[in-house]
Amino acid sequence: MTQSIEGIASISQENSAAAEEVTAAAEEMSAQVEEVTASAQSLSEMAQALQAVVAQFRLGGDGEGQRLASPVSVSASHPGGNGHAVPERQMVRV
Fold first, then answer.
1. Residue extents of the structural domains in the chain
2. d(CA 66, CA 64)
3. What distances in angstroms separate CA 86 from CA 6, 14, 19, 80, 92, one per listed residue?
């Protein structure tokens, strides 16, 4: 009888340890999902900014492109703090 109780206790401890591992893995996956979501949001914002910049370049009827007055300067980091460079001023056509 004592062996049965010890066996049950041992199995119970193993199950508890396995449950803790599953919980830790789930928490890690949750953190990774949050990171991917933030990256996707950042990528979406950068794509929108790129679309706005590319929209400045339209070909004329004769096939010649527009020329910019000055290059766009970029800051060292995105205002949101994600480290991505963004234009500081608008482009001007000449």
1. 1-55, 58-94
2. 7
3. 64, 52, 45, 10, 16
